[in-house]
């Protein structure tokens, strides 16, 4: 009896570790097309529209994904569902379609625009907003107060294309787009205040957890910025990667995720003060992520890829669920080029003696940044090069089991 009980306890412990260590898991489906959006109305019911006109639906949290038949067709971008039966999808040339029977039938709605509609969101059964543009121009924000029976074009919108938007309530909303465009409204879209980020990054995602606190992401260059005053001012955060970033999602003021090209997934538990990379198990570009709580979420993108996590994307061990990465890695410093400071991040899957040094072009040591034992986890350090001349430098991470070297450029 004691042996049986021991085996049972070991089974429970191993099962718990297996579940908590899963990170991101690829879910199977039969679609080979790009998806720009994934949306869940609750923990079980979700939808993914694809560029080839297919819409996948699950009613069991992604255990099975089934194609809605008949397919609504068209070149699709966004979707939003209030309930498992009532929702909207959007596409090219102003396409907006609504279903009230879970997708068995779709009714086209008149959007009064030819701009592509990338994002749609409803705040209640009547009030919704749709956001889009054509290429790099013709940014539009549409609003409805009658469930989409009619859509009106908001005034004072940027001429730049808008790629994404987010509304916290029927009055307060934000949108981002090309050429560093950020626009915001506090009166339900009647008036918009538009600013432009320095460096003109292509902004692709924005999310707010309250009227003051939000984040935006983009690419060319890799960009994450945070605001604590409703979008009047933005402070750059360090992504730790050089990838083009495509979406951002937070579940509270501390916990958030960013997805991007080449399977990039970043995670923070401190409001973005530190971003760590997660293993996505894919190299496909990830255009959208959606979380129903702090542990359960999905990410979608190129070639029909669908990822799911039930652990917030992290790998955990032990009774206290200590979060650790599963491999050694050294990230590209950010920013790069830089002046005069840059951040170097790296992952340690186990406690290690760490040496992190900076060298010049001749191989001479410039500075030792780390020289000692560090616990397993996501590590980060800022190098201040105030007293160093401009030029190319190398930073080398060494442990007993891992060595990596990367280059960085100091420009004054």
What does this structure look like?
The chain has 412 residues and is mainly beta. It has two domains: 23-313, Methylamine Dehydrogenase, Chain H, CATH 2.130.10; 323-410, Sandwich (Immunoglobulin-like). It has one helix and 37 strands. The chain has one helix spanning 2-20, and strands at residues 24-27, 39-40, 46-49, 55-58, 66-67, 76-81, 87-91, 96-99, 107-109, 116-122, 128-134, 137-144, 152-153, 162-167, 173-177, 181-185, 193-196, 202-208, 214-219, 223-227, 235-237, 245-250, 256-260, 265-268, 276-277, 286-291, 297-301, 306-309, 315-317, 322-324, 329-330, 341-348, 352-359, 365-374, 377-384, 391-398, 403-410. Strands 1-28-27-26 form a four-stranded antiparallel beta sheet, with no helix packed on it. Strands 2-3-4-5 form a four-stranded antiparallel beta sheet, with no helix packed on it. A four-stranded antiparallel beta sheet has the order 6-7-8-9, with no helix packed on it. A hairpin with a 3-residue loop joins strand 19 (214-219) and strand 20. The longest helix is centred in the first third of the chain and has 19 residues, at 2-20. It is globular and about 70 Å long.
């Amino acid at each position: 009896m004691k042996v049986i009980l021991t085996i049972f306890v070991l089974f429970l412990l191993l099962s718990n570790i297996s579940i908590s260590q899963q990170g991101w898991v690829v879910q199977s489906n039969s679609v080979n097309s790009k998806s720009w959006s994934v949306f869940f109305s609750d923990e079980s019911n979700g939808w993914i529209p694809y560029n080839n006109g297919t819409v996948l639906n699950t009613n069991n949290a992604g255990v099975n994904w089934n194609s809605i038949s008949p397919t609504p067709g068209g070149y699709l971008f966004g979707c939003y569902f209030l309930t498992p039966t009532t929702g909207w999808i959007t596409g090219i040339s102003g396409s907006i379609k609504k279903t009230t029977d879970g997708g068995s039938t779709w009714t086209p709605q008149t959007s009064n625009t030819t701009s592509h509609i990338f994002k749609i969101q409803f705040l209640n059964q009547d009030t919704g907003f749709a956001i889009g543009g054509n290429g790099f121009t013709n940014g539009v924000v549409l609003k409805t107060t009658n469930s989409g029976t009619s859509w009106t074009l908001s005034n004072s919108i940027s001429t730049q294309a808008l790629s994404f938007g987010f509304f916290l309530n029927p009055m307060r909303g934000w949108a981002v787009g090309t050429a560093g465009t950020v626009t915001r409204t506090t009166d339900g879209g009647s008036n918009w205040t538009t600013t432009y980020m320095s460096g003109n990054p292509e902004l692709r995602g924005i999310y707010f957890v309250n009227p003051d606190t939000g984040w935006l992401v983009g690419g060319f260059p890799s960009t994450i910025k945070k605001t604590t005053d409703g979008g009047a001012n933005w402070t750059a955060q360090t992504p730790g990667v050089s990838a083009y970033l495509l979406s951002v999602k937070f579940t509270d003021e501390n916990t958030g995720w960013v997805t991007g090209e080449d399977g990039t997934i970043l995670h923070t538990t401190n409001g973005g003060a530190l971003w760590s990379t997660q293993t996505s198990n894919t190299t496909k570009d990830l255009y959208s992520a959606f979380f129903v709580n702090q542990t359960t979420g999905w990410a979608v993108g190129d070639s029909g890829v669908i990822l799911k996590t039930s652990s917030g994307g992290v790998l955990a061990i032990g009774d206290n669920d200590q979060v650790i990465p599963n491999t050694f890695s050294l990230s590209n410093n950010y920013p790069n080029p830089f002046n005069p400071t840059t951040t170097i991040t790296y992952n340690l899957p186990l406690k290690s003696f760490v040496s992190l040094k900076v060298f010049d072009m001749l191989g001479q040591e410039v500075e030792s940044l780390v020289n000692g034992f560090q616990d397993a986890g996501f590590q980060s350090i800022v190098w201040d090069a105030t007293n160093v001349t401009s030029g190319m430098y190398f930073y080398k991470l060494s442990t007993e089991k891992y060595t990596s070297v990367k280059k960085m450029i100091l420009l004054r």
